[in-house]
């Protein structure tokens, strides 16, 4: 069996900063953060963690942590400022150096091509509501892999297409800020089409392994009432199966609960075989019958569990349930699994002695690492675990008000301070 990947994860817009340097073009998040009221406290990712200028320091933190892998995302507008057309050589050179520096430190680079920062010129033409964006994504994949695939083995196409569709196109709380409700569903299909086209493009350019990372959740009905059971099934279809089934089985699930017909085209491309499935897990979801018009379900909350600073319930065994459930549902069609995100936000502060104590995060990580081990004991082929996140960073619509990092960042000075969880994780690597 291949070496288990122990890593941390980040995303370009959340940590890089340098949004106007080296020829980078505007992204939808540059636009969104400048619209009043969109992001808490008016925060932007203009500087973020300034990772663009501090890569050596951040790689040293990874080396000190002892991880053997790093999942990061590549900024599409830094590589292709217009989304299509000429490559920006200075932008691509940044990732070329990053890959070399990671390898020199003994850390496997695992890049994600799209972590929500779509070039604004593509959004001006409809973004993921326009199927042409899928073809543009494949061209972008070719440009990046042609430069990096000689040294990068494992690639991730999309990060959490459900969240990008739901928050960005259906509810409007993330960029690009559209509130289309169920009319956002074409953004799901076009992201999946882009994934399939990019998978083929990556392989043509020499990539060895290609994954997609989906945000997945165990779905629990609020009761045994048939209305709650039907609502839970509908939510499972929208959140989980809409993005897993086409890739793994070549067919969409039944969307009749949403009054929609499933797309019948492009499935041969979308179901291009993948070498792994990335699983981003934060918590289960408890679902009840709809409380009113709109979606055919309602969120019933999940009382009785501790919560993170975000208010998310902490249920470590939900990760085991999720991983074993994927094996039960997809059987031989399920590729190896990688937990590509798992972590929690806590209200971390620097103590008078300069340390950052985060016992809740240690308990969170301990519980979830053990859940991965239980899933492996039950026969699930899990090959990696990535903590979200290496650094406190720009947390989308929450700005800098939610801290997920193993390393505390003072956003006034950009000083990095490893937290207690950093030292705990270093001591517990390799225990699955």
Automatic annotation (TrEMBL):
InterPro entries reported in the protein's UniProt record: GH (IPR017853), GH_1_N_CS (IPR033132), Glyco_hydro_1 (IPR001360), Glyco_hydro_1_beta-glucosidase (IPR017736)
Catalytically driven reaction(s): Hydrolysis of terminal, non-reducing beta-D-glucosyl residues with release of beta-D-glucose
Transmembrane segments: none
GO MF term list: beta-glucosidase activity
This protein's record includes keyword Cytoplasm: no
Keywords: Carbohydrate metabolism, Cellulose degradation, Glycosidase, Hydrolase, Polysaccharide degradation
EC numbers on record: 3.2.1.21
Domain of life: Bacteria
NCBIfam families associated with the record: BGL (TIGR03356)
Family that this chain belongs to: Belongs to the glycosyl hydrolase 1 family.
Cross-referenced PANTHER family: GLYCOSYL HYDROLASE, LP05116P
Protein name, entry field: Beta-glucosidase
Organism this protein belongs to: Nonomuraea typhae
């Amino acid at each position: 069996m291949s070496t288990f990947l122990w890593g941390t994860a980040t995303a370009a817009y959340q940590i890089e900063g340098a949004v106007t340097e080296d020829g980078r073009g505007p992204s939808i998040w540059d636009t969104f953060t400048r619209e009043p009221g969109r992001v808490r406290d008016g925060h932007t990712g203009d500087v973020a963690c300034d990772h663009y200028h501090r890569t050596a320091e951040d790689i040293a933190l990874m080396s000190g942590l002892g991880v053997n892998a790093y999942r990061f995302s590549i900024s599409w507008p830094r590589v292709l400022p217009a989304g299509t057309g000429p490559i920006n050589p200075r932008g691509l050179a940044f990732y070329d150096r990053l890959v070399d520096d990671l390898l020199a430190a003994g850390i496997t680079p695992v890049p994600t091509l799209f972590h929500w920062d779509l070039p604004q010129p593509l959004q001006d033409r409809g973004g993921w509501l326009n199927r042409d964006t899928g073809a543009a994504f494949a061209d972008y994949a070719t440009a990046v892999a042609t430069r990096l695939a000689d040294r990068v083995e494992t690639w991730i196409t999309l990060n959490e297409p459900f969240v990008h569709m739901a928050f960005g196109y259906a509810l409007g709380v993330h960029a690009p800020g559209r509130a289309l409700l169920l009319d956002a569903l074409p953004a799901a299909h076009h992201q999946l089409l882009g994934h399939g086209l990019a998978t083929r493009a990556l392989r043509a350019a020499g990539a060895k392994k290609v994954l997609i990372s989906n945000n997945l959740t165990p779905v629990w009905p609020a009761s045994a009432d048939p209305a709650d059971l039907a609502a839970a099934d509908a939510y499972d279809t929208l959140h989980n199966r809409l993005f897993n089934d086409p890739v793994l089985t070549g067919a969409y699930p039944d969307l009749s609960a949403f009054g929609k017909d499933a797309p019948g085209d492009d499935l041969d491309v979308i179901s291009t075989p993948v070498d792994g499935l990335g699983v981003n897990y934060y918590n289960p979801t408890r679902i009840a019958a709809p409380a009113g018009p709109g979606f055919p379900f309602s969120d019933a909350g999940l009382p009785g569990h501790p919560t993170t600073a975000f208010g998310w319930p902490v249920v470590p065994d939900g990760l085991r349930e999720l991983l074993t459930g994927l094996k039960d549902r997809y059987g031989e069609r399920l590729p190896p699994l990688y937990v590509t995100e798992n972590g929690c936000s806590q209200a971390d502060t620097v103590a008078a002695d300069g340390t950052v104590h985060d016992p809740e995060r240690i308990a969170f990580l301990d519980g979830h690492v053990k859940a991965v081990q239980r899933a492996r004991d039950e026969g699930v082929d899990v090959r990696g675990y990535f903590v979200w996140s290496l650094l406190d960073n720009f947390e989308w619509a929450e700005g800098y008000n939610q801290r997920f990092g193993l390393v505390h960042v003072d956003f006034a000075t950009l000083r990095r301070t490893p937290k207690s969880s950093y030292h705990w994780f270093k001591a517990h690597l390799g225990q699955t």
